[in-house]
Design a protein that fits this description.
six-stranded mixed beta sheet, Rossmann fold, SBP_2_dom, alpha/beta
Amino acid sequence: MSTKFRSIQPALLALLAIFGLVLATGCSATGGRPRVDEQGGGGGGVDTPRYTVAMVSHGAPGDTFWDLVRAGAEDAAKKNNLELRYSSSPQAPEQANLVQNAIDSHVDGIAVTMPTVEAIGPMAHKASEAGIPVVGLNAGMSQYKKYGLSGFFGQDESIAGKRAGERLGDDGAKHVLCVIHEQGNSSQEARCSGIKDGARGAKVETLYVNGMDLTSVESTVQAKLAQDKSIDYVMGLVAPVALVSVKAVDAAGSDAKIATFDTNAELVEAIRGGKVQFAVDQQPYLQGYMAIDSLWLAKRNGSTVGGGQAVLTGPSFVDKDNVDTIADAAKKGLR
């Protein structure tokens, strides 16, 4: 063996050892739903104990909004070397049971949505009293402090609704149909009320539908539009409802325009194509990410985020003028 080769052998072995450590780190589990990123997946980006956290939402099966929330939560869990246990139910009693399950499992932190505060709030408070860090996201902003939650990540739905109403008024809307897809959801009621406040004298009518049955949503919206030709704007409160409303408008022979809260990849293309005028974006990925990241911070060094105030992730508007800036992220399931 030459002297030159012997001189580089220790350095080569050291590099191989480091590469082996990188590979080992890249193969650790992330918890939650299996998910592979463009680099083939990866373990935690920090050298801290592996904690277990739960996220309990009111997301309904098939609602793409919650895929975005969960994607953000999973990315934060991966970065922070956390095991994430995600569960959801649109039914308040079942969602409360899921929070109880998290408490019984002695998780290290809980992120929870509270669309029906009187049902979910007491259970969240129970977790907090048990010494589990609890934060809220998406729904329940007005009362999260009452139930002992240390932080909240989302948008003020009344403000978001008012800004949407102002935009509808600027566009000349005279009769707006606000479609609520989860009856009893206080956040959705607040959106429609805000639209009434902001729409400058336009008539705002509420239509209740079952958001878990999009075929039924389409037929109900179509029937309403066929019955009342004065409706000139349909305001969905979630992207899938807005997209089927596009079909309902065509089938009813209506001239109504469509707008919505929230986005997904298909909705982005609908805005590009002029089928949907705009979306009110509350950045669901960011809500999921920040909620889980804050739980890690609470365990890491006792940090709280927001200084006693909710951290606002919206509202902002996505329309034909700026839709291209989020199009790539939307295709990847991040916006």
